[in-house]
Design the sequence.
DNA sequence: CTGAAAGCGCTTACAG
DNA sequence: CTGAAAGCGCTTACAG
């Protein structure tokens, strides 16, 4: 037996397909008695609407999209984010990986033109990112994830990286550190720029070395800093993998952690907790962040005006990798 | 300007919509000259087919699906797997998380009835899994990921866990270990059963404690083993998180690793490499595994008969957590 | 309040 | 080889 369509329901309840559609979607235009009859027939038949057909007639696609342009950021972050999004979403997530931002933009155009998605999440915002303008132009409902500040008329969900950075610096200065350095993530990413700015404001004399989240670049950056003329007594890394690489380089150079060098990682993880010494880290609930983003997009889809939602600020968890500066 | 449809192409090339469709899809039924004209008009107009409309008319949906029934297995594994799948896939991945297997099955029925997907990946196979029979009944193209052996008439991609387990046991026995235990993953999962069987075959007297991949259960299992009447001199864990928890419990109980206890983790990870001592682990390229699964599904979609494809066997990487048994 | 029709953008028999 | 039509399963004006 084929699965039932509105035609079957129309037949068995003695009304037109149009009436069935109105009844099923809770729209005015049919009497209460008709509506009830249609609904009960639909239930009896085990009717499930076809989102494909709906999408073609211009209604809901019953899916939202997330496209990732390589290289993607920190693996674990995205997985938890997507997990959190999914858990909160009553629809499917259309996921696609593309090579660059141009392909990403092209995909948004297609998806929207075809009604394949009802909205999208924008991740990994760049400095001067073209995507916000595109979704605005298209009228494609969207939520920017992780971008502080306003993004045209697009909703966003963000965390206060500046405040988090300040809390890290305060922690270190209270331990007597004066020469603090930062090993940053990809310079093209907006949040790197924001963290850079916050770091510079808090540590005017601080050195920033740019890297790319990999352990090899994290190690190289650490070596560069520790072998410099004025080696730092504390380094703040933009992710856990680079921080762990930093611990390795320090050991290699005979620099003890935390006696001679304090280390802080931006995102907390099992890795931070389980290595020796355990790393002081900025901790946040990425899965909850994803759930918040999902709710924000659902709100936009429901017609709410786009707002910027602030997530909880990452919290500094002090562990054994930070200690009093021995050089001040 | 609206995006062009086959109607626009038909108009400008002076043929019917049907002919345009045939020409565009490379089907017989139109002359070469007509086909060329249609193709060039389509190119000039920047035509992109609507996969929504295609799906509704019963053709390709231009998407494949992956549904995850909670609780999902090891996080990192799935992320790498999905990353590997995506990289190989020329279409979108429809991803949805559901509460249980019944919902998962229901989703397959809907997706297939609506032509929302062209095929699906089946992951986390259970002992007596109902899903294989469902996709067979539906005729929904599918690939079983990670399930050794035949699964009805459904294609599969798998790795030889039994051989991998044997290599672990051989490594340990060659180091003089006789009392070897296993801390296993969820008993309901098929690959747990397979590893159990391989372990029992290799270590007839070996104890298996069942756990669930979490650090807390991994720690509890380790405690149970080490405080027992005949504590093992080596433990093989079903994932990295439990193995690391085991290291912690050993330290807590004053059992030194590897002098008094050797530890092996099933899946290698940064965590295994970076903790102290670094863990001996079974390593594999999960991303490549995902790519292989993607190719297998594409082959099935292209009409190939379903086959079982063996992935490379996980390789044992010996590190400092395993050593000669001091008690034999 | 309700029905009959047109349309979304394709594909696929069915005639010529 | 080609065209005109019907149909996929919905939604949405448009008449009554």
Sequence:
């Amino acid at each position: 037996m084929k699965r039932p369509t509105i035609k079957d329901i129309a037949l068995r309840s003695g009304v037109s397909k149009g009436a069935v559609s109105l009844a099923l979607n809770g729209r005015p235009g049919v009497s209460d008695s008709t509506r009830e009859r249609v609904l009960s027939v639909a239930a009896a038949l085990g009717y499930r609407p076809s989102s494909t057909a709906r999408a073609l007639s211009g209604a809901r696609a019953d899916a939202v999209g997330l496209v990732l342009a390589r290289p993607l950021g920190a693996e674990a972050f995205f997985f938890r984010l997507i997990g959190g999004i999914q858990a909160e979403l009553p629809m499917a997530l259309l996921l696609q990986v593309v090579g660059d931002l141009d392909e990403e933009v092209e995909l948004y155009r297609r998806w929207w033109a075809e009604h394949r998605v009802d909205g999208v999440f924008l991740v990994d915002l760049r400095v001067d990112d073209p995507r916000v303008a595109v979704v605005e132009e298209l009228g494609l409902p969207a939520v920017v994830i992780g971008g502080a500040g306003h993004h045209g008329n697009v909703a966003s969900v963000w965390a206060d990286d500046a405040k988090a950075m300040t809390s890290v610096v305060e922690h270190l200065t209270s331990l007597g550190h004066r020469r603090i350095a930062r090993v940053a993530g990809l310079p093209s990413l907006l949040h790197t720029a924001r963290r850079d700015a916050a770091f510079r404001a808090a540590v005017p004399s601080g050195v920033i070395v740019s890297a790319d989240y990999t352990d090899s670049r994290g190690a190289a950056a650490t070596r560069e800093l520790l072998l410099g003329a004025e080696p730092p007594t504390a380094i703040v890394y933009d992710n856990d993998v680079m921080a762990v690489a930093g611990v390795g380089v320090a050991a290699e150079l005979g620099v003890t952690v935390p006696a001679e060098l304090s280390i802080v990682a931006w995102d907390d993880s099992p890795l931070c907790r389980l290595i020796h010494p355990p790393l002081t880290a900025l901790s946040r609930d990425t899965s909850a962040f994803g759930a918040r983003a999902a709710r924000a997009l659902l709100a936009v889809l429901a017609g709410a005006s786009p707002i910027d939602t602030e997530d909880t600020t990452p919290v500094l968890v002090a562990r054994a990798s930070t200690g009093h500066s021995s050089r001040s």
About this structure: The first helix of chain A runs from residue 6 to 13. Residues 53 and 208 of chain A are 53 Å apart (CA to CA).
